[in-house]
Amino acid sequence: MSYAKGTNIILLWSAATNFLPIVGAFLSDSFLGRFLTIFVGSIFSLMGTILLWLTTVIQNAKPPSCDVQVPHSCKTPTHIQYTLLFSSFAFISIGAGGVRPCSLAFGADQIDSKDNPKRERVLESFFGWYYSTAIMAVMIAFTGIVYIQDHHGWRVGFGVPVVLMFFSTFLFVVAYPLYYKLKVEKSLFTSFCQVISVAWKNRKLEFPDSIDGSWYNKNDAIVTKPTNNLRFLNKACILSKPEDTTKVMAKDPWTICTVDQVEELKALIKVTPLWSSCIMLSVTMNQTTFPVLQAKTMDRHITSRFEIPAASFSFFTIVTIMVWVILYDRVILPLLSKIKGQPVYISVKLRMGAGLACSIIGMMVSGIVEHIRKNKAIEDGFFDNSQGVIKMSAMWLIPQHVINGLADGLNIIGQNEFYYSEFPKSMSSIASSLYLLGSAFANLLASLLLSTVNELTKGNDKTVLECDKNDDLGDEQGPKSEPGS
């Protein structure tokens, strides 16, 4: 399988994995509740990791071993082998669709008490620990799990996640009696459709002059009026006859909607422009395969005996995110507050914008390093040898990983904080899934970008992405020699 084809498969799978959380979020907030959604997602994730592990255990579930330095000796996987592999990916994606959007919101439900005077500080602390824990888990995956796979093989390397997933699911279920479980009241998707339908039906109604008694609220809710943003949607909750009792009108939700229903739909629409602007950052962050291929062709030794695995260079991105979270929460904000003599808060939108700027700088640095690496490979005589290691330290890849980590720490954490603060509590799972939905679109865009580059750079019966990593289509070298050791 070529680099381009393999990368496209990974990008499309990542797109599915990042898209399904929005489906899981709607199911959670509308029908199943967060506990049941997480439980079902955990079971699917466990099944997916088991299937993936079986592809390394069952002899007929994978192609026979071959010499990677002689590509023509390697057999293509059969349809059954592909089916088993892609089935494991599908189960893992479905599992992610249940776990990812609900875990943050479900955790916040356990500690979010309106009677607690320190409620905001408790939630802020929880978010900080949640992200730090998630980052530590990814860091362990990029270091410990990758190390096991490199030194003990895929069988053990894929077996460890199976054991960990089993114990995490078991511990989650055992603690069932201790959880606070928020009751599901309605289907959000149906509610949104009702608001749009009723607003269209009432489009010819005039907005009421009087505020009191002109808007439909829940029977047990405090009487409120809708906001003036997206004002045309307010017609969905106008009481055409304020003297009518709301009990009669409530029998047909397709005739009139509550103010809360209207505001929930507005919350989703208002974040769309800012959400869409952050998709391109995820496109740059999703270019994960080629940095690994870059590292494989460079000197990765720290000492004469210790060599960093190529896939573990993402460790520097993870460490940067974790360091930024700690510095921002424990050093930067307290120091600025002390200097100004009052609490200082850097706005979410400013942090998101700074993250976008860092992602641009990171891609520029990445391009410069790749240009130098390619020229060095040609100088060292590794033009057509994809297995050759050039005399250039892989440590030159660290700056781009650090800058990308800072971009993640600024933008992604800011995104989740922004969505959670903008949405009502009944939509917390959807708020937690919006970043993942953006990542899904980014995966599709990255795949399209990859396919476009692959198509436009055809030459000598090969494209720039199908060549050896030290190759250059711009030079004529005649027939390729067999790679050396």
TrEMBL record:
<keyword id="KW-0812">Transmembrane</keyword>
<feature type="transmembrane region" description="Helical">
    <location>
        <begin position="348"/>
        <end position="369"/>
    </location>
</feature>
<keyword id="KW-0472">Membrane</keyword>
<keyword id="KW-1133">Transmembrane helix</keyword>
<dbReference type="Pfam" id="PF00854">
    <property type="entry name" value="PTR2"/>
</dbReference>
<dbReference type="GO" id="GO:0022857">
    <property type="term" value="F:transmembrane transporter activity"/>
</dbReference>
<dbReference type="GO" id="GO:0016020">
    <property type="term" value="C:membrane"/>
</dbReference>
<dbReference type="InterPro" id="IPR018456">
    <property type="entry name" value="PTR2_symporter_CS"/>
</dbReference>
<feature type="transmembrane region" description="Helical">
    <location>
        <begin position="308"/>
        <end position="328"/>
    </location>
</feature>
<feature type="transmembrane region" description="Helical">
    <location>
        <begin position="154"/>
        <end position="179"/>
    </location>
</feature>
<feature type="transmembrane region" description="Helical">
    <location>
        <begin position="85"/>
        <end position="108"/>
    </location>
</feature>
<dbReference type="InterPro" id="IPR036259">
    <property type="entry name" value="MFS_trans_sf"/>
</dbReference>
<protein>
    <recommendedName>
        <fullName>Major facilitator superfamily (MFS) profile domain-containing protein</fullName>
    </recommendedName>
</protein>
<feature type="transmembrane region" description="Helical">
    <location>
        <begin position="6"/>
        <end position="28"/>
    </location>
</feature>
<feature type="transmembrane region" description="Helical">
    <location>
        <begin position="434"/>
        <end position="453"/>
    </location>
</feature>
<dbReference type="GO" id="GO:0006857">
    <property type="term" value="P:oligopeptide transport"/>
</dbReference>
<feature type="transmembrane region" description="Helical">
    <location>
        <begin position="129"/>
        <end position="148"/>
    </location>
</feature>
<comment type="similarity">
    <text>Belongs to the major facilitator superfamily. Phosphate:H(+) symporter (TC 2.A.1.9) family.</text>
</comment>
<feature type="transmembrane region" description="Helical">
    <location>
        <begin position="35"/>
        <end position="54"/>
    </location>
</feature>
<comment type="similarity">
    <text>Belongs to the major facilitator superfamily. Proton-dependent oligopeptide transporter (POT/PTR) (TC 2.A.17) family.</text>
</comment>
<dbReference type="InterPro" id="IPR000109">
    <property type="entry name" value="POT_fam"/>
</dbReference>
